[in-house]
Amino acid sequence: MRPVLVLGPSLGTSAAALWGPVARLLDDEVEVVGFDLPGHGSSTWTAPADLTMADLAAHVLDLLDERGVTTFHYAGDSVGGAIGLQLLLDAPQRVRTATLCCTGARIGTTDSWAERAAQVRASGTPSLVAASASRWFAPGFLEREPDAGGALLRVLSDAADDGYAAVCHALGAFDVRDRLGEIAAPVLAVAGAHDVATPPSSLAEIADGVRDGRLVVLDDVAHLAPIEAPDRVAELLREQLARHGEGESA
Which residues in the chain show pLDDT less than 70? Predict the structure, then answer.
């Protein structure tokens, strides 16, 4: 049986748009299970306004239970990475490895996420597109890959305002910096050299804080490593599973 690899998207994106190229590169080696945030992509989940990261992690586990998946490898970007950390803390017996991209044990501040949520409620997710385009991608990416970048920006524009704001609330309350030492599963922290939102120091904090962590910094990448460098991210996942993928994962 092929190992199961669960893929978590960043805020404002979908698993298919963000992780699609990586999933295709690994299709013969793993069973891919992607999930979407509330109000994003294909998700039909209407989350409460006071959503927490624990709620998001529990939702992922419920989806996996429905598929009969017991243990799995995990990869997530940004809030997807934060969900991965929550899974490692809440269900350590189920997560075999975690590859956490462009994320942090604490991302932003409570006030900054409250401001983002207020902007979305007032002006909608399309109001975020211009700023996200400059923050998400390293210089030159949109010119080189307009289709891939444009697809992600359309997912952002189409995301439900309430769902986006609910995830902002979860990020505003999320801080597990003092719990990283509890995490025993192997963790690969992948940073983008051009990432302003979650710089390499944020990923280094994770790699140094967990019991079995490793840091990789990718050049020419900002905040969305899976779409900016799919070949390299797929290679890193392949290496991670080869190192720690003994036995079946479902």
Answer: 245-250
